């Protein structure tokens, strides 16, 4: 069931999203060779607690951490750990913030020092594909318009789109209807309505689009060892167009 949000509910989600964006701003300054994803995990726990928020991922279906930290060929749901990041790595940090019951969800991929041209192209294209999808998130369009915009752009740039993991509705709970695929056909799928709040979170690979899951039951990685990146925003569908809730630029 899709829950349409009021202007007041969207405003509260934006407060949550602004806090999440501030966390990512701090994380960006932490990323360097030698940093561990465990240090980022500890920062996020402390930052959210100091700001009266809850790390919503922690405890979700048994997940133990406030963040997902996915390095290189890890697509998503990587566990934070004490292994130092090294020059040339890319790392995606994903988190969900609950501020007074209002949810926001955002992931960003970061370069660790100087990275390869292939990795840089992946990061730039994945971020651009997110905004290609957001441009289609307007009242009257369909979910397939979002997916098609992302897929057509990514594949034209020589990258593949992960199918197994998708965006979603978000609001009182972390994962709600509708699922938001990052591939598809224009003019197909659910029609977008004012008051819908969704995440768009494309995951692109430099090689095969398929994923395999580690023995921990959570961490997904590319089947061929190729690099993967992800960028994600939470947004509201409004009569004036998409409103990004997890960006400080939208303040």
TrEMBL record:
Record: residues binding a divalent metal cation 1: 94, 105, 232
CDD domains tied to this protein: MetAP1 (cd01086)
SUPFAM superfamilies (UniProt xref): Creatinase/aminopeptidase (SSF55920)
EC number(s) given by UniProt: 3.4.11.18
Listed cofactors: Co(2+); Zn(2+); Mn(2+); Fe(2+)
Cofactor binding description: Binds 2 divalent metal cations per subunit. Has a high-affinity and a low affinity metal-binding site. The true nature of the physiological cofactor is under debate. The enzyme is active with cobalt, zinc, manganese or divalent iron ions. Most likely, methionine aminopeptidases function as mononuclear Fe(2+)-metalloproteases under physiological conditions, and the catalytically relevant metal-binding site has been assigned to the histidine-containing high-affinity site.
Gene3D superfamilies attached to this UniProt entry: Creatinase/methionine aminopeptidase superfamily (3.90.230.10)
Protein's name in the database: Methionine aminopeptidase
Species for this entry: Sporolactobacillus inulinus CASD
Gene symbol of the encoding locus: map
């Amino acid at each position: 069931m899709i829950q349409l949000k009021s202007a007041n509910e969207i405003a509260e989600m934006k407060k949550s999203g602004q806090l999440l964006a501030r966390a990512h701003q701090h994380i960006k300054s932490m990323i360097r060779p030698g940093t561990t994803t465990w240090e980022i995990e500890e920062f996020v726990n402390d930052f959210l607690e100091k700001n009266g928020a809850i790390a919503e991922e922690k405890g979700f279906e048994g997940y133990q951490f406030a963040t997902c930290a996915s390095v290189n060929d890890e697509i998503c749901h990587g566990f934070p750990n004490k292994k130092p990041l090294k020059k040339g790595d890319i790392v995606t940090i994903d988190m969900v913030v609950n501020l007074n019951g209002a949810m926001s969800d955002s992931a960003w991929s970061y370069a660790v020092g100087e990275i390869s041209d292939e990795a840089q192209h992946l990061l730039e294209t994945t971020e651009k594909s997110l905004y290609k999808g957001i441009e289609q998130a307007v009242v009257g369009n369909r979910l397939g318009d979002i997916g098609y915009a992302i897929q057509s752009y990514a594949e034209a740039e020589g990258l593949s789109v992960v199918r197994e993991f998708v965006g979603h509705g978000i609001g009182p709970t972390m994962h709600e209807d509708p699922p938001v695929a990052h591939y598809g056909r224009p003019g197909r799928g659910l029609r977008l309505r004012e008051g819908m709040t969704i995440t768009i979170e494309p995951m692109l690979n430099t090689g095969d689009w398929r994923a395999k899951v580690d023995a921990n039951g959570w961490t997904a990685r590319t089947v061929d060892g190729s690099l993967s990146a992800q960028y994600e925003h939470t947004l509201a569908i409004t009569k004036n167009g998409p409103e990004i809730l997890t960006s400080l630029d939208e303040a």
